[in-house]
């Protein structure tokens, strides 16, 4: 009887499931898909960076004013040292504006790189919980520094206008607005590379801090870059491809000397914004999310 019932039952056809769009859990996506995921997370990145900036300085009496006061105090200190004591201001027109541009722009780049370098060493549970690409971590750190330092650009312009000798801005001064995104992408590329290597070897953070100080003295922040170039052909070559040197020169040409900078500086900055950013993102993508494991093994 049972055999007859089984024979009477209709045969079920096999179900075909299309698995072409499925990926293995934890498998690495292609680099192009990875970049698309980063782009899709742009709202989260901006929200997280903005929220962090709003929470900074709440424990201090002056709060966010320190974001403006710190570079001003640094400028006063370096002016006293390099202009009054060492007298390195000779031959530099409007040394006060020259120095302020150097200090403000350098601090922006240095803070972006050093803060992002430690981003994988710190705890980032929110990014992990959201399932976002690991490269988002240093991007958030970089954007946080940039947002917190954004008022510094306005303060810089006001100081150049108000502190004698007063500079009269021309239409060329608006060209400085082009330098801001170029510096931002330059900072991002260097930050991604720093975050990658410090995330693997945390000890490199100490060497990075020394490198940042050397970068300051080698970029013409407080004196003319010709002092570095005159040391020899090797120094001249390194100085030419130093992106911070061009950030400072382009800004000074537009805001102080009312001249349009040469094309060399724009090209070097563009290359430093594109190549390190793609290279840093590629290295972080290739390594996946293994920075945490490295930190745990070091601890």
UniProtKB/TrEMBL annotation:
Keywords: Cell membrane, Membrane, Transmembrane, Transmembrane helix, Transport. InterPro entries: ABC2_TM. GO terms for biological process: lipopolysaccharide transport. Pfam families: ABC2_membrane. The keyword Zinc-finger does not apply. It is found in: Cell inner membrane. GO terms for cellular component: plasma membrane. Belongs to the ABC-2 integral membrane protein family. This is Teichoic acid transport system permease protein. It comes from Zhihengliuella flava.
């Amino acid at each position: 009887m049972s055999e007859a019932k089984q024979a009477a039952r209709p045969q079920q056809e096999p179900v075909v499931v299309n698995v072409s769009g499925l990926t293995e859990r934890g498998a690495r996506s292609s680099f192009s898909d990875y970049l698309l995921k980063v782009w899709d997370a742009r709202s989260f990145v901006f929200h997280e960076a903005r929220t962090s900036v709003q929470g900074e300085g709440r424990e201090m009496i002056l709060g966010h004013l320190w974001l403006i006061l710190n570079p001003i105090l640094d400028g006063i200190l370096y002016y006293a040292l390099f202009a009054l004591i060492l007298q390195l201001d000779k031959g530099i027109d409007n040394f006060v504006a020259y120095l302020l541009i150097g200090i403000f722009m350098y601090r922006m780049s240095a803070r972006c790189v050093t803060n992002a370098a430690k981003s994988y060493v710190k705890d980032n549970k929110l990014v992990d919980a959201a399932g976002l690409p690991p490269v988002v971590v240093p991007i958030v750190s970089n954007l946080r520094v940039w947002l917190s330092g954004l008022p510094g650009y306005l303060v810089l312009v006001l100081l150049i206008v108000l502190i004698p000798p007063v500079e009269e801005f021309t239409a060329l001064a608006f060209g400085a607005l082009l330098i801001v995104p170029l510096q931002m992408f330059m900072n991002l590329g260097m930050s991604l590379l720093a975050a990658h290597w410090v995330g693997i070897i945390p000890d490199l953070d100490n060497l990075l801090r020394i490198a940042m100080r050397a970068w300051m003295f080698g970029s013409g922040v407080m004196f003319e870059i010709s002092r570095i170039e005159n040391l020899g052909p090797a120094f001249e070559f390194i100085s030419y491809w130093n992106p911070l040197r061009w950030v400072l020169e382009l800004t000074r040409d537009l805001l102080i000397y009312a001249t349009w900078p040469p094309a060399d500086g724009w090209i070097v900055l563009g290359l430093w914004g594109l190549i390190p950013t793609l290279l840093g993102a590629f290295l972080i993508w290739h390594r996946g999310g293994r920075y945490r494991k490295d930190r745990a093994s070091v601890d």
